[in-house]
Amino acid sequence: CYKGMVSAEQPKKEKTEKELKKEVEKAAKLAKFEEKQRKLQEKAAAATAKPKEEKVVKKKAAADVPKPIVGKNTGEKKDVGAGLPNVYDPGYVESDWYAWWEKEGFFKPEYGRKNAAAPNPKGSFTICIPPPNVTGTLHVGHALATTIEDTLTRWHRMKGRTTLFNPGCDHAGIATQVVVEKKLQRERGLTRHDLGRDHFIHEVWKWKNEKGGVIYDQLRKMGASVDWDRACFMMDPKMVRAVTEAFVRMHERGTIYRSNRLVNWSCALRSAISDIEVDKKELTGRTLLPVPGYDEKVEFGVLTSFAYKIKGTDGEVVVSTTRVETMLGDTAVAVHPDDPRYQHLIGKVCVHPFVDRELPIVPDTFVDREFGTGAVKITPAHDHNDYEVGIRHNLPFITCIDDDGMISAGCGKFSGMRRFDARKAVTEALKELNLYRGSEDNAMVVPVCSRSKDIIEPLLKPQWYVKCDEMARKAIEAVESGELKLIPDYHVATWNRWLQGSRDWCISRQLWWGHRIPAYFVTVTDGKTPAGDPCDDRYWVSAHSEELARKKAAKKFNVDPKFIQLKWDEDVLDTWFSSGMWPFVIMGWPENTSDMQLYFPSNVLETGHDILFFWVARMVFLSQELTGKLPFKEVYLHAMIRDAHGRKMSKSLGNVIDPLDVIRGVTLAELNHQLTTGNLDAKELAIAQAGQARDYPKGIPECGTDALRFALLAYTSQGRDINLDVLRVQGYRFFCNKIWQAVRFTLMQLGSDYHAETFKLCGKESIMDLWILSRAAHAVNRCNAGMEAYNFTQVTTTLYDFWLYDLCDIYLEAVKPVIASGTEEARVTAKATLYNCVETGLRLISPIMPFLSEELWQHLPRRKSQPPSITVHSYPEISEFPFTNEKIEADVAFAMSVIRTVRSLRSDYELTNKTKTDLYASVSSEEDHKCLTSLIPLIETLASSNKVEVLSNVGLDGVPQGCAHVTISSRCTVYVALQDIINIERELTKLASKKEKIEAQMAKLVDQESRPDYEAKVPLPVRITNTEKKEALLTEVRSIETAMAALRS
Fold first, then answer.
1. Which range (44-48, 545-549, 993-997, 1034-1038) has the least confidence?
2. Is 564 helix (H, G, I), strand (E, B) or coil?
3. Pairing relationship of beta strands 917-923 and 721-723 according to DSSP bridges
4. Where is this region: Disordered (predicted)?
5. Closest of 966, 954, 961 to residue 981, by C-alpha
6. Three-state DSSP class for 739?
7. 313 dihedral zone (left: phi>0; alpha: psi -120 to 50; beta)
8. Which of 86, 90, 757, 1013 is deepest in the core (most CB within 10 A)?
9. pTM of this prediction?
10. The pLDDT value given to residue 59
11. What residues form DSSP beta bridges with 519?
12. DSSP string, 497-537
């Protein structure tokens, strides 16, 4: 719907490049001005507050702690002796800890183990990072993947398991080559062919060594607890050797073979490309598209009809095509054998109008009788369906378009033309011969190269293929048997559908950067052996070196090695072939290394569902083929991240979110500048910058790594898409601050002389002590269960509720008066409970928020024999928390319903916390009377009351005059004494006015939603927001109505 809306309105509202540029400049200037004003205000505020601050420092030296130099990364442990700063600052918190963790070896599987090879009774956990492309920087999809992988790793490490999180980087064949080629052209005006293969590869290595470390630094920023000593790059010597060994073994077995077939060909790259590198552009009809190398746009989405004359008659057969230029390669016309219109023509031949060629009319059931004229031109060398027809009917395969996208020799006057120029020329020539029969709009999918934006041309090329039928069968069986588990399980249907219909896999690419195929074409010069065809697999040998290949070839052809001439294949392997071996080559395969024995197969693979077939299935293929084992036991497939409006992230839209910008914060001007360093043209740049100005008028606020990690996991509800709103991430930064302040409060209440002991119930705990311990037990149980089931939303929700609502909103408030003025016994018990719950809470959040939890935990008083870091501490186990008490939880929940009702009333009457009121609660049962009476101190504190009385079954006549009352449920009615506190008539008028305004807002939303085109024109995220807004307003109206009714009573 959203796309439809945009395309419909675009012709009216499209702005010129100049207007867009002006809009961006205006937004950028505004952002700069706001930033300048903010700094001036901060400076003025600091100057005004300076004397006061100096006074505070003299009075209380530990109030503001000097910050360390952020990012010094010496590897020394951060000094926490000066105490916690007053305010949470992610830059300060996240400095220095990672370098210390790394130096101490906490991330190594050998840490804390005397004999790493000995079995760990608690088990082991291995996960391999899906290797990011060396070309790039960390995008938000990587951030989500890294967060999930690292959270799992840290949780398993804290569970006491031997843990390995293995990092690495992919060479990214096409992507890297394209980047370096553009760089060469931009900076030196050279192509790779100008340099030659060896010099070009030298340039790629040089670029990789300059840029390759960036992504590793970003992984450190994200807190990834990987073992850096095991980091691998896909072109490292050990990887090259392993990939070569795999090809040689599979070629010798016949699993890899040579064949002449159709491939996805990018004329701009002069290479075959994989299906995942083909973008499928859907057209509804006639559309002009840009094509590299063409000054004018080219027309697509048109079905052209023309006639072939039937030899020896005046008859003709009309065919239809969306690619009229390919008729130069036609070798037949196909009709359905049961189509009565054409049965009399089967076996006859048509005459090609431009070349000396006869086209037989053949019967084939693949023809759709309802499409076009029901007769189909067959071009076996340029169409996948036609290729199959050509095989079935033994037709000639004539290539009419060459590697560069030019019309091939042998195509008459069209030879040498560019393919899309030939499209026009062929159409005109058909008109001249009176063979043109018209054209019409046609919905179609145009394949576009994602790297070069060229239109993909199916070309017949000799390539290397992997037989996939048997490997696909085994992969399906692995999932069906439960040996391999896909999470969420709705991906199983996709897995089966793809694998059941999978074709053999083309693994050769016409590139220079990558794993060069270790295959050699053999020419035998003994004068007896016939010359071979490069398409013929029998004339190829594979080996680790030319010397070994020569020996192999001599043995194969039974000749002396001196008669063997070899030509090394110039192609490289598809990137997915080498990355498909990732889980076992990083462990040392083909040798049976100790790492292979200890850490392979891994426990889980975490990746995006978009590469389930392209990468996950191929890892399963190659691992089973080469090691006889599955590469992992489980596959967790995360959702795709879109922007807040539900749009796919794209540089041309300006909505790509760099996680480092979210972590550190960035101004709009800086965001705009980042776009100028990419490859966008002037118009795309203007559109992208305007998009940034709309979405981030004030830039992106600094949120920190911990808040970003928590937000990404909170979004991960095992769905297909995540609409990421940066403001929600900022909300979790505020949550971090809440945790910070809770720990600061705890430290102040405990005092500097507090000695932490192993926690045990002493029997002197108050109801609220027992309640928070029960809530902590609940959190421990839910977090462990959520992590076990990959239900990260359950974990984040549990942690958020425990810290924010249970601990901060309720228990800390309840414990303040106890520690301030309770008995010594009550104070000691409350402190022990407080310490235990806060320390447990920090360990619970540690896998998700590693920096914040480490910083705060290091400031807490230590128990005896604790580990040096929370990173290697134990994760709380439910067996350590036998404190679940459903009765007390139900009692406090009942008391909280009273407190929330009173707070809502007070809010509607705009009473501040300083204005204390008397509160009367009338209950209908003795049990409820006992319950609320035991919790009077909690109700007094949280409901800002002078006094609280719990009464049994009384009405208005049983309480003082001037009370507003609200019935909470059949169990309880509350009365708030407002005599002499508010003017009832004035309050009623104010509330009525407020209600009227809210109802007007609701009416506006209802009016919007009732429009006929609302569903079609308004994007889904906006519709969802409107629904939520309407529900919130309705809740507010009901609250006001309750408050008014309470006053009238």
1. 44-48
2. strand
3. unpaired
4. 1-20
5. 961
6. helix
7. beta
8. 90
9. 0.83
10. 32
11. 542
12. HHHHTPPPEE-EES-SSS-B--EEEEEE-SSSSPPPPTT-G
Residue (of 802, 822, 821, 807) closest to 745 by Cα position = 807
**Which residue matches tokens 């063997």?**
564
- Of 423, 449, 152, nearest to 301 by C-alpha is 423
The CATH number given to 731-883 is 1.10.730.10
Q: How far apart are CA 325 and CA 309, in angstroms?
A: 18
**CA dist., res. 505 & res. 845, Å (int):** 44
Hey, which residues does 966 pair with through a beta bridge? 974
**Which amino acid appears at position 727 of this protein?**
L
Q: Which helix (H) or strand (E) holds 967?
A: strand 963-969
> How many other β-carbons are positioned within 10 Å of the β-carbon of residue 606?
25
Q: Which helix (H) or strand (E) holds 58?
A: helix 17-59
Residue 148 CA neighbour count, 13 Å, CB half: 32
| CA atoms of 318 and 303, how far apart (whole Å) | 12
Domain covering 272-460, topology: Isoleucyl-tRNA Synthetase; domain 2 (3.90.740)
- Please name the residue that has the structure tokens 């290595």: 205
Q: Do the domains 272-460 and 90-244+576-642 match in fold?
A: no
Query: Which is it for strands 162-166 and 168-169: parallel, antiparallel or unpaired?
Result: unpaired
CA 35 to chain centre: 31
Mean pLDDT of the chain: 88
Hunting for tokens 């973008």 — which residue is that? 279
For strands 721-723 and 640-642, give the pairing.
parallel
Q: Classify strands 972-977 and 917-923 as parallel, antiparallel or unpaired.
A: antiparallel
Residue 975 one-letter amino acid: Y
Strands 124-128 and 162-166: parallel
- Taken in order 284, 290, 292, 293, the sign of the CA dihedral is positive
Instruction: Write 53-59 long-range contacts (CB < 8 A, 24+).
Output: none
Of the candidates 271, 253, 252, 255, the residue with the CA atom closest to the CA atom of residue 263: 271
> Which residues contact residue 895 at a Cβ distance below 8 angstroms, ignoring those fewer than 6 apart?
931, 932, 935, 938, 939
Exposure class string for 702-726: b at 16+ Cβ within 10 A, else e:
bbbbbbbbbbbbbbbebeeebbbbb
Is the Cβ–Cβ distance between 162 and 113 less than 8 Å?
Answer: yes
Query: Which ranges of 77-195 would DSSP assign to H, the alpha helix?
Result: 90-93, 97-104, 140-158, 173-188, 192-195
CATH architecture group of domain 90-244+576-642:
3-Layer(aba) Sandwich (3.40)
Element (H, E) at 605: strand 602-608
Written as one letter, the residue type at 173 is G
What is the number of residues in the chain? 1049
Residue spans per domain, the chain: 90-244+576-642, 272-460, 659-728, 731-883, 889-982, 985-1048
- Both tokens assigned to 184: 């060469």
CA dist 832 and 760 (Å) reads 9
How far, in Å, CA of 197 to CA of 627, rounded? 34
Instruction: Name the 3-class secondary structure at 28.
Output: helix
Q: How far is CA 842 from CA 182, 738, 748, 832, 855, in A?
A: 49, 13, 17, 16, 10
Residue 1010's pLDDT is 87
Bridge partners of 667, per DSSP, are: none
Burial class (CB in 10 A: 0-12, 13-18, 19+), 56: middle
Q: Mean per-residue pLDDT for 929-956?
A: 90
Q: Are 997 and 1004 in contact (CB under 8 A)?
A: no
Tell me how far CA of residue 43 lies from CA of 383, 706, 854, in angstroms. Answer: 68, 29, 32
> How far apart are the C-alpha atoms of 383 and 379, rounded to whole Å?
6
| Residue 26's pLDDT band (cuts 50, 70, 90) | low
Using the predicted structure, report yes or no on whether residue 57 has a pLDDT greater than 70. no
Nearest to 305 by CA among 439, 425, 420: 439
The mean pLDDT of 331-359, rounded to a whole number, is 95
Helix (H, G, I), strand (E, B) or coil at 98: helix
Integer Cα distance of 561 and 549 in angstroms: 10
